[in-house]
Amino acid sequence: MRRSPFPTPVLLLLVVVTSGGCAQEKAASVEKTYYPDGTPEWVATRKNGHLHGRSVLYYPNGTIEAEAHWVEGQRTGKTRRFYRHGKLAQTAQYVRGTLTGPVLHYDSITGQPVERQVYDAQGRLVYLNSYDPDGRPSSRGLQSIMEAPDTIGRGGVYAGCLRFGYPLTGQVRLIVGTLVTRPEALERYHIQDTVAVIAPDARGRFCFAYRLPPGAQGRQLFGYQFRHSGSAYDSLSVERLSGTKQFFVK
């Protein structure tokens, strides 16, 4: 199991800094942990008992493995991870402890980006794309955000909304039904037993509500697929984006 990038200190070097007033409120300390051979493993700053400022995690060979920035115990700002030989491996951005915005992954040899993820303000993945070997964006895929319950009562209506973190252009429709897989077919994922075809509302959400068959209980699967009349080469196309959500009827 990989160790945490922010281990519990086992050996501390404390440097207390005060500037008058109450020392308990003003005190700051630098904490360090070490590998068995005495090489630094982790260095961080605390203020009033919370991580505050820059923290750095080191590989046993002395190169930086990860660095992050903290504000009163919450990761905030840019975080970077590195390969053991020193090349950049990943960059990410946090806002008050929540992963927000783009996350870039880099190739360990060329240093070129290989994957980009984008997260919304709630830390949910909304976009994913990879890169060609020369660093140009290649495949793309918007990720839908599901807002629906995990459990409903017997005889109830299953209702919720799907949305995206990016605006879509063109005509987009959500098809709700049973999602089946046909590995041998050109269109691998297919909706059958369609129960609804839904257009987006004024806020760009695809909201659904349908009554389950009589006697439905236990584990159920909500299946969906988007149809998008925009160009298949549009980086914001969701043509045939499919998925399921498991929920329970009690």
UniProtKB/TrEMBL annotation:
Name this polypeptide is given: MORN repeat variant
Taxonomy of the source species: Bacteria, Pseudomonadati, Bacteroidota, Cytophagia, Cytophagales
Write out the coiled-coil annotation as residue ranges: none
Cite the entry's keywords alphabetically.
Signal
Task: Show which residues constitute the signal peptide.
Answer: 1-23
Q: Which domain of life is it from?
A: Bacteria
